[in-house]
Amino acid sequence: MNRARGERDEVLLRAEGVVKHFSTGRRRSAPVVQAVDDVSLEVRRGETLGLVGETGCGKSTLARCLTRLYELTAGRVVFDGDDLTKLSRRELRPYRRRLQVIFQDPYGSLNPRRRVGSIIGDPFAIHGVAEGKERLRQVQELMDLVGLNAEHYNRFPSEFSGGQRQRIGIARALALRPELVICDEPVSALDVSIQAQVVNLLADLQSELGLTYVFIAHDLSVVRHVSDRIAVMYLGKVVELADARTLFEHPRHPYTAALLSALPVPDPDIADARRRILLTGDVPSPIDPPSGCRFHPRCPKARAECAVTEPLLQARSGDPSTHLTACHFPVADGDELALAARAEPPRTPA
Amino acid sequence: MSAVRASSTPETARLLEVRDLAVSFQTADGVVQAVRGVSFGVERGRTLGIVGESGSGKSVSAQTIVGLTPGATITGSALFEGQDLLTMPAEGLRAVRGAGIAMIFQDPLSSLHPLYRVGWQIGEMIRVHDDVSRAKARTRAIELLGLVGIPRPERRVDDYPHQFSGGMRQRAMIAMAVALNPKVLIADEPTTALDVTVQAQIIDLMRRLQAEFGTAIILITHDLGLVAEIAEDVLVMYAGRAMERADRRTLFYRPHHPYTRGLLASLPAKGATGERLTPIAGLPPSLIRLPGGCPFHPRCPEVLPRCATDVPPLRELAPGHSSACWLPDRHGGPA
Question: Which of B:261-320 have CB within 8 Å of A?
């Protein structure tokens, strides 16, 4: 591989109009869950792209589409110049080495009856890379890299704590020296003191190995901490995309603003001073998403147009070209949304 | 309205007073010492936050108070309106639960029966304690569902739990918990399974109910943000012990115990993108083989020789602020 590394603007992965629908039954007329609907974004080499949103927004589905763990309903995923969506399973194999996933659940994603050494060594076996003593040496090297005691390769997952199990998952994902790692809620199941250990580890590995991350989490403070850029998703759509700092300091989409205002802050003064934008109701069903802007039934700024025309994800007036918002009436700095949201909400049909 | 309103307690007394609570479980691997001598209390209209990580004993403490830890060895006392809940016969405890002390759990789906309609379950809860007709109970259930913000409660009352979203189920749980107007509400990770925007709605709801009915709330959580948001007093637990107790501001701005300081320091700070976090080194101890002395000493960055042998008592540093640590009183300061 003699490609230039370290250039931040080089696009490593590009999603173009990715659509993923799930059928809810066998009949053709069965309702369709529109989990991801027309998402386009880029992941640049060496960066961390954060993906946030609430349950059912499609962030995990999108991640699985990016790695082609799911077949796309429409759209393309281009990895390092090659269209992954057209490849057969066999042709996909070499790419699997370069594209790995770390899963949320450190309990569910490790086979309890297999020893840790063989779990971490699986990628070597599957791809026929290293065998016997050489494989063991590499496994121990990996365990060392992620801060596990290399002498413990003969133990079972149950002998490790949650944080250590997540390290096992990380070691396995890194076995084949991937370029892009999708981290799907990697620290959500961990206690705060342990969470910080794993976040630091992921940061160290990124700078050591030149990794690119797509980091999915519902905990916004963690995402802010690790991400260079952040995409906010709502009901299968990206509603805002910007660099991490801009997104947190100048959110433009009312949903982003509401999400940020709802985040509990571990600081009593800030907690007392700020005004929350309380959204009413629940996220609508992705089977029958609202017309126009999907957020409009819960949006404190919604007007008639929002129910009719779907806003495009684009730079809004006054914003840099890197700050994209899908909203007809974006939030300006200093806008008071809190009061608007407290007024009697439009009743959403159940 | 309920059976237990007999004893008159002085206004100043705490509604619920837990003293020296210790809970252990016999397991195949040995005795799990889940809670080891913890005291706390809560007054009318106030909120006590109990924070701690997995295995700190925060949930077991609360479950023990309402008699939900069968098979455990329990010592200490838990006085509710002058009666000790820990020695009370099952019959009396049943009367207290619901009407006197109600509980909200993390996972609403496992606390709602899947085969009964939501409204029926709320109504049944009322009928167990009060002698009212089915129709009355149903009307009350509709009122309660409306109170907790379920849209069109008169229709939703006949839904089954699976027809509710996660946030709505948690609301239904709260409706059930406040149905009998309890004096104490114990909320064990009430919003952990919920998204942040829904979490904000639930917090808002709990606040409004407290303001309206003067309910005392014990909020059990691992989320320091949630504590900063709604608790007035905070108790920090670690490995079954109380590490520090203080009012909210003191705890966040002048914590004394190195564990509290470590917890606050390990959170991603506002505006510090890309900086390294400061985790607490090591792992929490096994509750079967606990270290001697202070349970936190193997991970403590400021450990003293005596910490490994002598258990530091929870001592008062200032009115309302206590810490179980051998470090000098003036050690406290911004984390």
Answer: 262-264, 266-280, 283-284
